[in-house]
Design goal:
3 helices; six-stranded parallel beta sheet; five-stranded parallel beta sheet; alpha/beta
């Protein structure tokens, strides 16, 4: 099953029973404040969820994401990947991801990651991944969080190939997001439309 949350405030709760699978894509690309709250309960054996998120905060904008995944049955899988960029004075994002693995949820496989790219001064990205494990029988359980500016080495490499600084910056930002967009279970035309929205945002990079 595929579900999408596109450019709107939402609070959604999903319950996945035995062998059920969910792919969820979250997009926050407009210029208004936005808050999305997601809860996933894996209640049946061999249930699985993949959550991919893309957000871009502009000047004065606040984007919030909260994700909770509860592993309450054996052999369940969850993968969470959100990427965001911030551009403009007082652009702010807050991402909170929590994965809970119950005592009876043996052989759990979970990974969550949030990465943010700061494109200007005066931006703020808060990233809080949480992991609570009550069983010693797990396949994988990890989380990652990173916030930073342009990769200067990558920028230098592109410019050494004759690409001007602004175009090089735009290529880096596009590449940063492509991993999420291409891994989400989206149609080709949907991927292209999202990348076009990103390009319109990236055009503001100075």
């Amino acid at each position: 099953m595929l579900d999408k949350i596109l450019n709107q405030n939402q609070k959604k709760h999903y319950t996945l029973e035995q062998n059920q699978a969910l792919d969820l894509f979250v997009l926050q690309m407009h210029d208004r404040d936005c808050e999305v709250d997601i809860r996933i309960d894996l209640t049946g054996a061999d249930a699985s969820v993949n959550i991919f998120g893309v957000y871009f905060a502009s000047a004065g904008q606040v984007i919030r994401n909260r994700v909770v995944v509860n592993h309450n049955a054996p052999n369940c899988t969850s993968n969470i990947l959100y990427k965001g960029a911030l551009l403009g004075e007082n652009a702010r994002t807050h991402w909170d991801g929590s994965v809970y693995i119950a005592e009876n949820a043996f052989a759990a496989d979970t990974y969550e990651a949030n990465r943010n790219l700061l494109l200007s001064q005066g931006t703020s990205a808060v990233s809080v991944p949480n992991l609570e494990i009550l069983t010693g029988d797990i396949v994988r359980a990890g989380h990652a969080s990173a916030t930073g500016r342009f990769d200067d080495e990558q920028l230098f490499y592109l410019m050494s190939r004759g690409i001007d600084a602004k175009t090089a910056q735009k290529l880096i930002v596009r590449g940063f997001f492509e991993e999420v967009v291409q891994n989400a279970e989206l149609e080709d035309f949907e991927q292209e439309e999202i990348l076009k929205q990103l390009e319109r945002k990236i055009d503001a990079v100075r």
